[in-house]
């Protein structure tokens, strides 16, 4: 579990990070949360499906990365091996916390286009945090410049968090649209690998293509005008990535 600490310019002035290690946060991630803005990029390498949040019961979009809990077929050699790095990994080791819940909230950050105040936090246990022999080592990123201003790396991290925040809001709207048009259906996967090992995946959902095709023209226009048709069709198209994912699994099994 992440150990979040509010970022403080005085305490973290000399903190150094290795962004290349962000992928290590995905080592045991079977289902990677994704937002609509990255559907097109993620769909080029992994199936995107819906599942229910275990705490709220609400539908969320996730990329399927493995066939068992804790399995990520895109992770090997201590690194993410996909062509596209999901926003959930790009933002590591930074998180947005509610102002009243953060420790020593001396450095608050208001997310762009959002009225709520958030505290920018860092996961103190993240593998991106390193201890270089010299704080001047240019191989590592820093949060602040010598004058205390945000570094370029830190500015990019803030932009990523803002994009995630907007994406999560858009995802809620997309899910609400799918529910209102009754376009969500359960998805069960029964798979047999090359070594004759079999598995079944339950608890996943996808788009009901028959109901989508049966929608009246005015309903399709509504979805198009709301900007939901593209992510809907991207979700559908991404299911074809199940076959390359099976191939990844077979290659890994062959090495055992």
TrEMBL record:
The chain crosses the membrane at residues 228-246. InterPro entries: SapC. Keywords: Membrane, Transmembrane, Transmembrane helix. It comes from the Bacteria. This is Peptide transport system permease protein sapC (TC 3.A.1.5.5).
């Amino acid at each position: 579990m992440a150990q979040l600490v509010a970022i403080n310019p005085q305490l973290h002035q000399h903190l150094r990070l290795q962004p290349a290690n962000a992928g290590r946060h995905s080592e045991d991630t079977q289902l990677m949360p994704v937002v609509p803005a990255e559907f097109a990029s993620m769909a080029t390498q992994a199936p995107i499906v819906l599942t229910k949040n275990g705490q709220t019961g609400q539908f969320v979009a996730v990329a399927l990365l493995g066939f068992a809990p804790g399995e990520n077929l895109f992770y090997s050699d201590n690194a993410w091996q996909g062509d596209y790095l999901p926003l959930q990994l790009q933002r590591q080791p930074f998180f947005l916390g509610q102002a009243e819940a953060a420790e020593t909230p001396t450095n608050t950050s208001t997310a762009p286009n959002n009225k709520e105040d958030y505290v920018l936090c860092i996961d103190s246990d993240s593998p991106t945090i390193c201890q270089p022999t010299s704080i001047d080592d240019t191989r590592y990123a820093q949060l602040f410049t010598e004058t205390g201003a945000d570094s370029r790396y830190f500015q990019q991290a803030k932009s990523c968090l803002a994009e995630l925040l907007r994406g999560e809001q858009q995802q809620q709207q997309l899910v609400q649209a799918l529910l209102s048009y009754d376009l969500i259906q359960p998805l069960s996967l029964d798979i047999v690998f090359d070594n004759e090992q079999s598995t079944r995946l339950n608890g996943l959902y996808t788009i009901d293509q028959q109901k989508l095709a049966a929608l009246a023209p005015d309903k399709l226009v509504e979805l198009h005008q709301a900007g939901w048709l593209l992510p809907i069709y991207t979700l559908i198209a991404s299911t074809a990535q199940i076959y390359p994912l099976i191939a990844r699994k077979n290659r890994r099994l062959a090495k055992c």
